[in-house]
Write a structure and sequence with these properties.
Strand content: 15-25%
Structural class: alpha+beta
Number of helices: 9
Largest sheet: 3 strands, antiparallel
Strand order of the largest sheet: 3-7-4
Number of strands: 7
Number of domains: 1
Shape: elongated
Length: about 170
Amino acid sequence: MREIALEGAFKDIRQILESLMVYDGRIIFNNEIAPFIFSNYYAKFNREHWAGNEAKVRYHILAEILKIALSKNIISIKDIEDNDDYEILNLLEDSEDEQIIRELALLKNGFKINKDSGESGFFLRKKFRFVDPMIFSNEELTRLSEINLDYKKILAKDREEVSKEEKIIIVRN
């Protein structure tokens, strides 16, 4: 809902929230329109933000930084468990380790993502995430994709897109 609010779509938020109900211990929708609105936003945010190439590369870079920091005993698993993100970033920045500082700069200063057919790149894998809400319609429970062909097509297209692996290389700005 936070992301929908950031889009300024307060009318959609109201419609979504007013269409929720509890049925047999589950949160479901009581009509077909609101879950379609909600699911379209989810698919859009997943494509553009959560599973977008830039987000995936940022996760990859951060994971590499953490692996380096752990292997050099700059941070420990206990540090990760006991500290918040800000404190971990401070530990990394304060390490003065050239490799870590260089990789952190990549996150701060930005990068470009180029397709790579050579040996230096890596495969950018994406995970297919989706919602297919339950709807109480005609006195029975059904999934949105079972009654809305447009949404079923959106899911199929997104699933196909995510299944494509790309070999990429990260280029510093």
